[in-house]
Amino acid sequence: MISIVIPTYNERENIRVLIPRTIAIFEENGFSGEIIVVDDGSEDGTAEEVEMLTKNYGNIRLIQRGKKMGLGSAYKTGFKAAKGDIIFEMDADLSHDPLEIPNFIKKIEEGNDLVIGSRYIKEGDIKNWSYLRILVSKTANYMANRLLKLDINDATSGYRAYKKDILNKMDMDEIKSDGYAFQVEMVYFTRKNGFRIAEIPIIFTERRSGLSKLGYKEVFDFFKRVLELWLSF
């Protein structure tokens, strides 16, 4: 069984498209799966939209939190609730294509513990990002790899799949970031615990609806947390 954990904050227009697409992939490939939406008090009716979708699909669960508590916190909440043997992270904004799900599962079945959807390997790409946004992303990956010796091309990618076993073996209290540094921390502690990591190429497409959640504070907090991890070596 697989679990897809999707954090949301004001993603009504996107989630009504993403969930049916994802469930169609389950059905086409014969996967037993569930979708867990962790909503942080959306004001645009995201939670209500998910509740409506549960009437058509029996494998959706909604976890409602009263306020924004951060991306990392949302994923940890979803991980704890997940029943699957393979647990995915997926953005709600349609930037991550559900068609890639079988490719992640294949890599897991080959013996990897964490599979990351990479924008920065052969056949990977980014659509509709500015040069500045790409520069910030590549700088973040360079710094994380240089300081933390991750040996990963795209440690900041949020499209990934874990074996549940490794999440159970990791001390999630060590993961301090509630923002985008969460992705790097998860790679760092996966490496630290000796688990196998692989990358597959993905095409990342910038959101079609809504606003990006990445701001200056998130960027600052990211670099601050990477430096903290480096100093803790």
Write structural notes for this entry:
- The protein has 233 residues and is of the alpha/beta class.
- The chain has a single domain (2-231), classed as Spore Coat Polysaccharide Biosynthesis Protein SpsA, Chain A (Alpha-Beta Complex).
- Helix content is 42%, strand content 19%.
- The protein has 8 helices and 9 strands.
- It has helices spanning 12-29, 46-54, 71-81, 101-109, 131-148, 164-169, 181-192, 216-231; strands spanning 2-8, 33-40, 60-65, 86-89, 114-118, 125-127, 160-163, 197-201, 203-205.
- The strands form 2 sheets. A 7-stranded mixed sheet has the order 3-2-1-4-7-5-8, with helices on both faces. A two-stranded parallel ribbon has the order 6-9.
- Helix 1 links the parallel strand 1 (2-8) and strand 2 (33-40).
- Helix 7 (181-192) runs parallel beside helix 8.
- It is globular and about 50 Å long.
